[in-house]
Structure formats: structure tokens, C-alpha cells
Design brief:
It is a single chain. It contains two helices and four strands, in the order E-H-E-E-H-E. By secondary structure, it is an alpha+beta fold. It has a single domain (3-92), classed as 2-Layer Sandwich (Alpha-Beta Plaits), CATH 3.30.70.3090. A four-stranded antiparallel β-sheet has the order 2-3-1-4. Helix 1 packs across helix 2. The longest helix has 20 residues, at 18-37. The radius of gyration is 14 Å and the shape is globular.
């Protein structure tokens, strides 16, 4: 399944309180559930919140699902990048 990193430019998101982030997560989950009910495959793995951006990792059939989620949730998909491979410390082992 293709994995994507989505960069979302959201001014001052890093200073959002826990309730605001919870609300954003709930909105995202709601849109994802509706898309799944429509027979589309898209899954949110996790996100990293920085000062003015959120970097999200998603599994999806294609970039189209990522764009649809961004449109329906209201969270911008400033840049969508298809992940070519994943490495970690274990990758160094023979």
C-alpha cells in the first residue's frame, strides 16, 4: 500500500492546546470513516506537529484520496510526497 507524507501549513498550530488537537483528530477521523464507508482506502498512521506545520503519514490507494481528505476535512495538503522506502536503525544490520 502506498505511504505518503503530507505537509500541512497551519500557522501557529504548535501552540494549539490539547482540546484543539483532539478536535482536529476527531474531524480527521470522521472524514476518514466516511471515505472508508464509500469504499476508499485511506489510513492515518500518525502526525508530527511543529510550530507552523503538521507532517502527517498516511497509507492510501493514491494521492487522490489524500486530496479528498484534505478538501473534506478542511486541513490543507500543502505538499504530498510518496514515500519510496523506509529505513531505521535496524536497516544497518546485515
Amino acid at each position: 500500500m502506498p505511504r505518503f507524507v503530507i505537509e500541512r501549513e497551519i500557522p501557529e498550530i504548535g501552540s494549539a492546546d490539547r482540546d484543539a488537537l483532539r478536535g482536529a483528530s476527531q474531524k480527521s477521523n470522521s472524514v476518514l470513516a466516511n471515505m472508508t464507508a464509500q469504499g476508499k482506502f485511506i489510513q492515518w498512521e500518525h502526525s508530527y506537529v511543529t510550530a507552523d506545520k503538521i507532517f502527517c503519514v498516511y497509507l492510501a490507494d493514491s494521492e487522490n484520496e489524500i486530496q479528498q481528505h484534505a478538501t473534506e476535512s478542511g486541513f490543507p495538503a500543502t505538499k504530498i510526497t510518496l514515500v519510496a522506502n523506509v529505513i531505521d536503525p535496524v536497516s544497518a544490520e546485515a
